[in-house]
Task: structure prediction
Amino acid sequence: MMLGTIFDIQRFSVHDGPGIRTTVFFKGCNLRCAWCHNPESQSTKPQMMFYKDKCKGCGKCTEVCPAPKNCTLCGKCTFYCPVDARKVCGKEYTVDEVFAETKANLETANNSLNDANETISAHEQKIEELETEVSTLTTEQATAETNFAEASNLLTDAKTSLEEAQASLASLQAEKDELEAYKAKIEKSEKEAVLASYNEMLSEEVIEAYTAKIDEYDAVQLDKELAYELKKTNPSVFSKNPQPQYVPKDEPKGGLEEILSKYVNK
Result:
């Protein structure tokens, strides 16, 4: 039976070559490199390793050792050491034992790989879902931007229409003011004409009194008031017979002659 002394079987090894591997370290190397990272691998025989920096000096290893003066590499001290300061480096393996160990690691690695593939598949599915959501959100954003642009255009058009309407309103108001001023001017001219028509028939005091309050009457009302004043001061103007009684045909519209033409004997 072929035996080999192995000092370590390293699982998930990623530092000594490409990929993830299980690395089997044999004991026995005659190169003796000064920079050797594993000097415990140089001897072909198993060795008791002692890690001085871990040791707490509890003495457990000495108490349980069956041969403290001549170590038989039984490994009892390594079992009782509470800080793993001792370790047997090197164990004889058959080829089948090495393959069984590496095969178990391979099965574990395959299971881990399957789990990793499932995780990757779930992550890929999640990424697809996120990409779909991002695409949807991007479309919604583009739609929102288009709607916002259309709303902005509508708002601009509304502002323009409002400005045009305000300009038209201002123009109409100006025209209204001009018409009202023109109307007031005409009404004033009519009332002044009415007053002028009575200058020769009424006293200066009466004319001045009505001139002072001319804005209180329109032309027709002023004509009525002046006609009434004329009747009080000079009734003979309205008839040929003394103290006649008169009935108006209808409402006078202005002018002394027109007013007189509205009255007839009863």
